[in-house]
Amino acid sequence: MDTVLEAAPQVETQIAVQIDPFSHHVVAIVPAAGIGSRMGASKPKQYLTLLGQSILAHTLDKLLSHPQINQVIVALHPEDTEFAALPQAKHPKLVTVIGGSERADSVLAALDKAPDNGWALVHDAARPCLTSQDIDKLLASRVHFPQGAILAMPVRDTMKRANSLGEISSTVCRDNLWHALTPQLFPTSLLRLHLKAALAAGAVVTDEASAMEWAGISPGLVAGRADNIKVTHPDDLELAELFLLRANA
Ligand SMILES: Nc1ccn([C@@H]2O[C@H](COP(=O)(O)OP(=O)(O)OP(=O)(O)O)[C@@H](O)[C@H]2O)c(=O)n1
Ligand SMILES: C[C@](O)(CO)[C@H](O)COP(=O)(O)O
Question: Is the ipTM of this complex over 0.85?
Fold first, then answer.
């Protein structure tokens, strides 16, 4: 095992981090503590039903059944009342923690329960259409990206910047622009260190890669499938159901 000195440019002191580049231990971290305000449903969107089971149950099935994932840590809302009733709730690979007020806080709470060595594969509860091929592809990318990588999709459309009146103010060059997806995969101790520091510094951290970028690291981009959508708005429900139906056919 190597001990390396990782220094975030914004952090004055250097901190020793244990990284085992050969570890194959993989922990999936599932932030599931959101309230789904944009969905506007009567319950948090991860508990809405698609094809007979909740969105969170679909997501957990994908992660719990993957042979290279050793443990799954789910971050739940402090007032969650539904998780215990899921068929996956008592799975031997599964652990729960209480999440925080932002997605990044929930991820950090789960990371604090993960073993130091090995890898953390962070995946939104709200992305139930993840495929095992995409998990395989991301795990295989560790050879090329020892400091971590994310699933992402190149931007396909012309991009416009709007002014405050809802008019186009400019066309944004889409060269090298990607949509960040999940899972996002990083050495656990490195992600914990940089996520903690980025949050303490007040950085905007909407995904794990943002925390690593803040620390001066350039995570890899691994092309993922377009059907790995995040269920965010009501019209995403129908689309996700169609993708799940096709995957089960
Ligand atoms: N405090 C939070 C906020 C979000 N999440 C999780 O992060 C994922 C992606 O977040 P998003 O789609 O934004 O979910 P919500 O925050 O629930 O949605 P909204 O922003 O519309 O309220 C979801 O699985 C959500 O449950 C979380 O674990 N803890
Ligand atoms: C992490 C993420 O899924 C990457 O696309 C996304 O940023 C999370 O959603 P949010 O709406 O930013 O919370």
Answer: yes
